[in-house]
Amino acid sequence: MNLNNISLPYPVLGVSDDILPELSEDAVKINISKDKQNYIFDIALIFENPQIQKYIDEGMAEYTCEYECSKTMLRKCESSINPIFHIVVGRKQINGRIYFNCFVLAKKKINSYVNKGFNADYKGYTFDLSVGDFLVAFPQYHYDADIKYDRLQAAGSFMQIREGKEKSEVFFDISGDKIDILLPTELYNMYNDPHIKGAAETMQCSLALNALTFALLNIKKRDNEERTWGKTIYYRLENEEGYSLEELEDHSQIPCLAQKLLKDPYRRLFNQLSISNPLNSDE
pTM here? Predict the structure, then answer.
C-alpha cells in the first residue's frame, strides 16, 4: 500500500510534515543480491521518534514490510519487532518491477495517542488508534528485475535493431520493452552483412542516437513503470552522477542528453575514423 498523496485522519510520521523531525533521506536502506534461484533483499529501516519507539519496545507496535509484483500476482507481508528484514524472493516470482512498502503499525489498540513531534496543526489533540493503523510510513522502494544493471550504459540493454518488413523507411517503435529500430528489409539485410554490422561506432552515431532522441522526446511517466527502456533511462537519470530528471523537461536539450547517455558517440565516431583512415604522410 503506497500512502503517497493520501490524507489520513491522524498524524503519521513520513506522511507530509505530520510529525517532526521528518524521516531522513536514508530512512530505507536496501542491499540487493541474487543467486541462481533467488533475489535477496536486506532492508534496514531508520527513524527517530522516542514515542513511537516506546510503542515498539512495549509490544504495542511493530515493523511491517509489504512487497508485491503485479505481473506475477505476488503479494506478501512480513512483520518484525526489529527494523531489519531479510526477504528472499524466487526469480520466477518477479516479472519486471517489485514494490516494497514498509511501515510501523499499531499491533494493539493505542488510546489517546499523542506525540511531542506532532505538527502544530495537531496541538491539543489526541487520537485513538486501532490495530493496523499507521504510525510510520517509510518511502516506497521498487526494484526492476528486468533492468540489466551491469550493462546500464550499453545501448543494447534497452535498444535493438529488427527487421521492419512492412516499412519502407527506418522507423522507431517505443511501445515495447526495448526501443526498436525497424529497418526496411533491404537495409536490414545490408545491416547483417559482417562488414557493415561490425561498424559499431557508425551505427550508434546514426541509428542509435536518432532512436534514443526520438524516445526521449516522447517518453511518458508510464514508460518508467511499464517498459524496460523507460525504467533504464529513468534509473540512470536518477542515480548516475551528472544527470537529473529535469533534463527531460527542456526539449531543446534532448539531443545533448541523448549524446550523454550514449557516452559521446560523435567523439567515438571521429576517433574511429581517424584510426581507420590515417592521413597519408605524403599528402
Answer: 0.74
